[in-house]
Amino acid sequence: MSKLFLGLLVAASTFIAVVKSECANACNGHGKCTSYDMCICNRNWQANDCSERVCQFGLAHVDTPKGDLDGSGSISGPGLTVVDNNFVYPYGTTEQFPAMEDSDLNVLTDSAHYYAECSNKGTCDRATGECTCYDGYDGVACQRASCPGYPASCSGHGVCKTKKQLAASDNSNVYKLWDKDSTMGCECDAGFFGPDCSLKTCKVGVDPLYLDDSATIKYSTFDFATLTTSATVDFTDGFAQPGTGFWAIRFFDHTGEDWLTVPITAGASCSEVVTALTTIPNNAVPAGSVYCTLTKNVNSKPENRWQQWDAQHPKGAVHPYRINYNLSIWDADYTSIPIGNPVPRLIAGESYQPLYRPNSPTGNLAHLATTKLSGYIYRIKFYGNPGRLQEPQIEVYLDGVRPSLQSTNGKVITKVWTDGQQGEDNDYFADHCDNVAVTVALNPYGHYYLSGMTDTEKNLLKACLGSSDFDTSNNIDVYNWDHGSRLYPHIVKLVRSVTVYTDGGYYAVIWFDPSVHYDGAFTAVGGTFKLLNPFSPPDAFATDEYEIYTTKGTLALTSNASEATFSFASRTIYTVNASYEETTEPFDGDISCEIGNNNAYKTKYVFHCLNKTDLFTVLNWANPEVNSPHLNLYTAERLYTSKFEYDKSVRFYGNPTGADNNMNAHLQSNEMHYMTHSITTDLSTNWGVSIAGQAQFNVYKFFPSTASTYNYVAECSNRGVCDWSQGTCACFPGYTNDDCSIQSSISL
Predict the structure, then answer these.
(1) Gap between the Cα atoms of 384 and 106, Å rounded
(2) Distances (CA, A) of 18 to 26, 28, 34, 376, 617
(3) Listed range (92-101, 496-505, 515-524, 674-683) with the worst mean pLDDT
(4) Parallel, antiparallel, or unpaired for β 57-59 and 115-117?
């Protein structure tokens, strides 16, 4: 080999080594040099020499069209990966947005919000690999839409939360869309509002112009029950002797702020409970503004028929503030429900079990036992706190995880409910039917009706009622009204003619029966205004005279095929299709307004769907005697579908074949699931029903009318202007007080 050749070979080797060395140096230690003298960058590094950082990725708030990335002349589908080994897309990307699925499992070919550098809401600093976010966005990948005022979010009067967290704070609602962890919002402290919680509410009061000769105010009245299944009232605190246990009331003011009373001794007197409430700080419950009545029952056996507990005296006493309800409880293992007519039930849990009792040795409920109850029920009226109040709670864990209220010989049950006396901001029945007064009577057949009217008064009432549905073309005669029907009955408010201004009246559902019926004296009467709820006078006097307030709003049946079941003093109402009427589709009783491709057929069975914030009540049209005497108007705070708990194969009543059971056959053929669809209400029920025999309770939705609504509990009592920056009222001339609720000639 010549020296020349050897020299060239050495030179070439040296050149190659130098090139490779320069390539390796050119990758800046953040990549690998290939045999083609190219840098393959390490993860999170880019550029030809691997000198630039890649910033963090997040779900894109807005999407950037990609276009024809591979220069093929067309846009490929969402399943084809192109542009491999790209700095930004090291594992490739697609020219269309990637395929995703909706809640009905349909493939979406034009979905969005895929991962992008700095979430497409910031610029990347290639030297540091950190995102510089645009205004209104934050996070290492600019992945969050900031709360107002970031980084000093929510003005110091709230908490910055994600959409998912905000939904969960609202009665455990669920939010699962793409921005559940990306879009932020302020959850304001009680008394503050606005996007950044910088505005402060003013004190609310009753509009002094609302009160006239007959208008009254609905103040919140709640019943608080501390009961035990023991044969004696033996409440303890876990260690001490009977009678020394403690409980407390968690009270919520009009702003939603919660206040906890001092511990209240088991079996306390009304005065002790009132003192505990009125000594809450900040005058949350004003002194002298609480009225309390108390009933005590020892070893009382609830029956499957009417059981009346007086609020001040033992059951059956005729006395003001009588509470009408049954207190029936399941047997010891809490797994069965009596068959027969529906009756209210007070139970330990918050949900019903199926009518069929799978652990029964005989497969039926013939050996059902009835539990006796002992304890105290307080009826408390908060007439110093006007407006709609959140339902209070009973707290029995005042000593850590150990209950401070126990029963040595039974199970402790605590419940809170309202019996037709709910506080309100808006009077939806503000149309007074002038010159009409009625009494409530009972005919020999057990049906309640409006009595004591002259023919002139009846005609005036017809004109006041007007149309019961959404169609005025079917109205009749010169009074331009209709009778009311199962689909659209009339709803009114009854207020005693001789009463006090704190008596807010009671709701009643009525319809006109044109046929002849017989009154209490067996006298034939032609045409009757019948009550759908067996209204019970609050003072037990059948001679009470009532004035009628009507509404241009509409009470509408949500669905014929959906029935309601719920326990006493519960905030959960279940809807299920358990009627004997066969349907061609497996309609399961869902009356929510959530409709997708897989359940669009339900519009045939749901006339008026129910949404969050809608008002509703529950009624049995066929058997009005089983309805609640005092109706509550509930607000739907959550509608949701949960995984079914009881399979269709579990037959009701223990019938193994279902051959002679129409309900079994219906449930089997329609593949029904029990306790699947639920409504969370703002108030606990003052009634309880199961689906058995003739118990077909339906949900009725109330559509208020602005023409019949008076917002009479409001900031500054509607008689001033609120300075939201300070939370103070500037009263109109002639009105004074911190809530402008007092008329005063001095202030003119």
Answers:
(1) 55
(2) 12, 16, 14, 95, 87
(3) 515-524
(4) antiparallel
